[in-house]
Design goal:
8-stranded mixed sheet, globular, 14 strands, 34% helix, 4-stranded parallel sheet, 580 residues, alpha/beta
Length: 580
């Protein structure tokens, strides 16, 4: 840690709007006074933007207005001036074709909201899957002092005496209905018990994973990730975060000071230890790109390969986020990594302390939830990066959610041209498929779907499920919900829609998956592969206008974070010219 706080007091960027007695500053200041703010609030104290992703159509974030009030209290207490700013909220639950399609435009909107308004520091009030990375991306681009506070996970679901995990049991019960093991009426009954409080998914899905990534990066206060949404300590965390951002502005402690290469390596190892979502790969790559860091898929494989998965949570394990919090939450995991020599202990955090200083004295209160290393769910829990002639730029697999007997497998490909083709064929008993086959889904990547939807964990055909088979090897250029499970190869790059080898796989080809050797191979000759790629033609239907056109024209591949190509590595919070 080599950060040196800036001198205080000094002139802050908000004073370009509010300081002095010129016509322009009176214009800016006078309008804001119509909200009843007294004159002395414009005396040069830090103006804190509370960037709130609340929306009625983002149910995970439906309680964030209440948390915003607690953040405001903290800002006032520390001598700051809080202003709540609504920002783009990309809801995983409602956005079509997929929330991922809108992560980048949300990041753009956040960046411009911060850059173009009189904000000295920002509290990123997030929760739902894409809201956390999009706000971190925007904050990284502006490099204004920023801190994350998440809305927290919902309470455990319960159905007939069984823990119900958000998403995880949706997939499980849906397959059970297709297999004839559960009635539709029972499925509907279970629905009512899945989401019984405010908050994000209660599994280690993408929302909880990204909350953990924010904490592991050092961008949230210690302990933030796991506090349940309805626990009073979540509101306390929000208020403490409001206090802290004021001091961060005074010190000029910026995202670029915290989100270093060491911080990202800490986050990668943390993701392995918690059994985190594969979506963390694509989001951390995008955030690092905004910071200007060279983070690659190889870093994911290098840093995560030897980290055991010690958090016993669905979809990899059996517990939920409530139990994780009661056991001690992410600080316990970080302490365990530090003790094992797998943590950059001196990485700086938003608290002003190092990663190790924050966690060295915490206690694990339940070693069945946060396991000893020798009892880990898997000894090599990191995201596996596969390469080969089918994925020259890489593909990923989550070993803690996969079936050990399928980690080395060779099978006949059954190909679906896109998600509509899959839906049209999968329930047909005439489909020539069995459990030894490899299901291949094309055209669901960043350009292909478009937006890269969470359809990679394709449901198995009913005739296979009825045999009692619950997993098969599945390969696609799509993503998978962090709540899902299975031996699923994702993010295959280059994607099919960009002319990657996945585009030319044919039903009947044989594919080899070799996880220990990080290999994904299409068993055809180099000459045949070259001929097929030469004959491939891109789809003719492309968006003609709007954000869909912008996305299609500029989105990069999954292997570099699927950000827009013109938004990477451009930091700065310069104030623009005043037009008044």
């Amino acid at each position: 840690m080599s950060f040196k706080p800036a001198p205080w007091p000094r002139k802050l960027r908000s004073q370009h709007w509010y300081g002095g007695n010129s016509r322009d500053t009176i214009y800016h200041r006078g309008w804001l006074k119509n909200q009843g703010h007294p004159h002395d609030l414009f005396d040069g104290r830090p103006v804190i933007g509370i960037l709130n992703t609340w929306s009625d159509l983002t149910p995970c974030n439906g309680h964030l207005r209440e948390l915003a009030e607690k953040v405001k209290n903290g800002v006032w207490e520390a001598g700051g001036f809080p202003v709540e700013v609504p920002v783009f909220s990309a809801s995983e639950n409602t956005y079509r074709p997929t929330a991922m399609m809108y992560r980048n435009i949300a990041a753009m909107a956040v960046e411009e909201a911060m850059r173009g308004q009189p904000i000295d520091g920002a509290v990123l009030l997030v929760g739902c899957d894409k809201t956390t990375p999009s706000l971190l991306m925007g904050a990284a681009s502006t490099d204004i002092p920023s801190i994350v506070v998440t809305g927290g996970p919902m309470l455990n679901g319960w159905f007939r005496g069984e823990r119900i995990g958000s998403g995880t049991h949706l997939w499980k019960f849906s397959e059970a209905v297709k297999a004839g093991e559960m009635t539709q009426e029972e499925f509907l009954e279970a629905e009512a018990s899945m989401s019984r409080s405010s908050g994000t998914c209660n599994t280690m899905g993408t929302a909880s994973t990204m909350a953990s990534m924010a904490e592991a990066l050092g961008m949230a206060l210690s302990g933030n990730a796991a506090i349940p949404a309805v626990d009073s300590r979540r509101r306390t965390m929000a208020q403490l975060t409001g206090r802290r951002i004021v001091q961060m502005v005074k010190d000029d402690l910026k995202p670029s000071d915290i989100m270093t290469k060491q911080a990202f390596e800490n986050a990668i190892r943390t993701n392995a230890a918690i059994g985190g979502s594969t979506n963390a790969v694509i989001h951390l790559l995008a955030i690092a790109g905004r910071v200007g860091l060279d983070l690659t898929l190889d870093d994911w494989d290098r840093c995560g390969r030897d980290v055991p998965t010690i958090v016993n949570l669905m979809p990899s394990g059996k517990y939920l986020m409530e139990e994780f919090f009661y056991a001690g939450g992410l600080p316990v995991v970080l302490k365990r990594l530090g003790e094992a020599g797998m943590l950059h202990r001196d990485a700086l955090t938003v608290s002003g302390q190092t990663a190790w200083e924050q966690v060295k004295d915490v206690t694990n209160w339940n070693d069945d939830v946060i396991l000893p290393a020798e009892k880990a769910l898997t000894q090599s829990g990191g995201i596996v990066v596969l390469k080969g002639n089918l994925a020259p730029k890489g593909a990923v697999l989550k070993p803690s959610a996969a079936s050990p007997h399928l980690m080395v497998h060779r099978g006949r490909a059954v190909v679906f041209a896109d998600i509509d083709d899959y839906k049209a064929k999968i329930n047909d008993d005439a489909l020539d498929i069995d459990e030894t086959c490899v299901m291949v889904l094309k055209n669901c990547g960043p350009k292909g779907y478009p937006g890269m939807a969470e359809v990679g964990n394709m449901g198995l055909p009913p005739k296979v499920l009825k045999k009692g088979i619950t997993d098969m090897v599945r390969i696609s250029d799509a993503r998978m919900s962090g709540t899902a499970y299975g031996t699923v190869v994702l993010h295959t790059a280059p994607e099919a829609a960009a002319g990657g080898p996945l585009a030319v796989v044919q039903t009947g080809d044989f594919i080899e998956l070799d996880v220990p050797n990080r290999r994904l191979h299409l068993d055809i000759s180099d000459a045949e592969l070259t001929a097929r790629l030469a004959a491939w033609q891109p789809a003719a239907d492309r968006p003609a206008s709007g954000y869909a056109w912008l996305h299609q024209a500029h989105v990069e591949g999954a292997d570099t974070g699927a950000d827009l190509d013109f938004l990477k590595g451009c930091r700065g919070s310069e104030v623009g010219k005043d037009s008044h």
